[in-house]
Design goal:
129 residues; two-stranded antiparallel sheet; 8 strands
């Protein structure tokens, strides 16, 4: 049996993926992979996702240079979520979010509102042209 056959893909042929920073344990982002994206990730040792909004494969960092080097891949107990332990490259500290922040999870719920609690490390206008 192929290792990809162990994955419980959803009806659209996707599996959710969490990218976690290898050195700190910070959760950096959430994305989706299809079979081809997961196979490419395994082969390259760099994260390749499926962009639902663009309807195509997305090699993380292809535009920004913020590549995710994969150290370890884990599959959850239900075989339906993948955890990537990665090093976010391209800027120090690594920028995973398209807003120019370290993590996509930069908003915290406080007093009935979502508040940005992480700084912008680099202007997204200078990252994406």
């Amino acid at each position: 049996m192929n290792c990809l056959d162990h994955i419980k893909w959803d009806a659209a042929g996707l599996v959710p993926v969490i990218a976690q920073e290898h050195s700190t344990g910070d959760v950096l982002m959430f994305a989706w992979m299809n079979r081809e994206a997961l196979q490419l990730t395994m082969e390259k040792g760099e994260a390749v996702y499926w962009s639902r909004s663009r309807g195509k494969l997305w090699h993380k960092g292809e535009e920004s240079g913020h590549i995710q080097k994969v150290h370890e891949m884990r599959l959850d107990c239900d075989n339906d979520v993948i955890l990537l332990r990665i090093t976010q490259q391209g800027h120090e500290p690594g920028i995973a979010c398209h807003t120019g922040r370290h993590s996509c999870f930069y908003q915290r719920f406080e007093s009935g509102a979502w508040v940005a609690v992480e700084p912008v490390l680099k202007d997204p206008g200078s990252i994406y042209k």
